[in-house]
């Protein structure tokens, strides 16, 4: 589909609004980028806006294809709410990176950007672009108080899975909190071993998979819920594998290249498990729908087949 002159005009308006907001909030954006590059658990933050832009472009036929003139009042409301939230977090709180105020600040910016989109292109386009726009919420870093709880949960779940694997394989194991002792080795499942970075990557990958391959809200919800236990299972398999290799093959496995750089192997194991679940959920959706082929959620069926 060729982009209409009206859409091009709206795009220029949208980009100008983004440029103005970036100029006015450059200190906050610089702090966000610096925070993302210096914290592994938030390294995905700088990628999300580019991913949103790609999705908007790849689905432009469905998003900008309607010639309907729709209301932009909700966009103005979002801009106003975002501006108030940003002002409050900037001048009434201490928006240090990692704080709740900093997260509120970024949430406010995202709200303003979504409002800009609706003002520039209309409510109909905003509704069609709901998934790419809401994906921007992943650019909001979690406050340290919440992030620490997430890491703790992943840490505990990974320890539980590792311990269960050892017990299943009948490896003599003693557990004391996050410490696991097998003959000759005591390992600690530390926060660095929680797998938070790969878990976030898995979450983003599964969000995209659900968007493209699942057609019901309940199917997408079930699939996304599965990400949490699978992330723990994947991490438990990794810890157990490295420990057993160190125990029965070579002690250097606990500090070698597989430990440092082999995370992608276990990441793909987790994706394989979720891939099987995705196929199962998709088939169940088709069965309930009477065998209809799934289309892209929220998109026109004609566009989905062309893509």
Give a written overview of the molecule.
- With about 300 residues, this protein is mainly α.
- The chain folds into two domains: about 140 residues, no CATH class; about 160 residues, no CATH class.
- The chain has 14 helices and three strands.
- It has a three-stranded antiparallel beta sheet with strand order 1-2-3, with no helix packed on it.
- Helix 5 packs antiparallel against helix 6 and helix 11 packs antiparallel against helix 13.
- It is globular.
- The chain starts with a helix and ends with a helix.
- About 30% of the residues are buried.
- The C terminus is likely disordered.
Helix content: 55-70%
Spatial shape:
globular
Order of helices and strands: HHHHHHHHHEEEHHHHH
Number of continuous helical runs: 14
Task: Tell me about the largest β-sheet.
Answer: 3 strands, antiparallel
Structural class: mainly alpha
Indicate the mean pLDDT: 86
The radius of gyration is: 23 Å
Number of domains: 2
- Neighbour order of strands in the largest sheet: 1-2-3
Gap between N and C termini: 12 Å
What is the strand content?
under 5%
Low-confidence stretches: 293-307
Count the E strands.
3
């Amino acid at each position: 589909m060729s982009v209409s002159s009206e859409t091009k005009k709206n795009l220029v308006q949208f980009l100008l609004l983004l440029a103005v907001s970036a100029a006015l909030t450059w200190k906050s954006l610089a702090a966000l980028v610096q925070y993302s590059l210096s914290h592994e658990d938030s390294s995905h933050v700088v990628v999300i806006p580019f991913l949103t832009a790609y999705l908007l472009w790849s689905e432009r036929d469905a998003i900008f294809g309607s010639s309907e003139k729709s209301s932009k009042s909700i966009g103005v409301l979002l801009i106003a709410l975002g501006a108030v939230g940003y002002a409050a977090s900037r001048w009434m709180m201490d928006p240090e990176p990692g704080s709740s105020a900093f997260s509120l600040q970024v949430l406010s910016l995202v709200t303003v950007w979504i409002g800009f989109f609706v003002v520039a292109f209309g409510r109909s386009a905003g509704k069609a672009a709901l998934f790419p726009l809401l994906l921007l919420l992943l650019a909001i870093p979690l406050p340290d108080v919440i992030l620490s709880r997430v890491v703790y949960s992943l840490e505990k779940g990974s320890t539980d899975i590792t311990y269960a694997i050892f017990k299943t394989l009948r490896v003599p194991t003693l557990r004391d909190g996050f410490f696991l002792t097998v003959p000759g080795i005591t390992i600690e499942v530390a926060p660095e071993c929680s797998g938070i970075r790969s878990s976030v990557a898995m979450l983003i990958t599964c969000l995209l998979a659900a968007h493209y391959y699942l057609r019901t809200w309940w199917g997408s919800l079930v699939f996304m819920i599965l990400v949490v236990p699978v992330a723990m299972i994947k991490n438990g398999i990794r810890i157990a594998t490295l420990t057993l290799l160190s125990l029965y093959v070579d002690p250097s496995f606990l500090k070698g290249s597989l430990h440092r750089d082999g995370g992608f192997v276990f990441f793909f194991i987790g994706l394989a498990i979720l891939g099987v679940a995705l196929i199962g959920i998709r088939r169940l959706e088709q069965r309930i729908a009477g065998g209809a082929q799934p289309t892209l959620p929220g998109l026109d069926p004609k566009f989905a087949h062309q893509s």
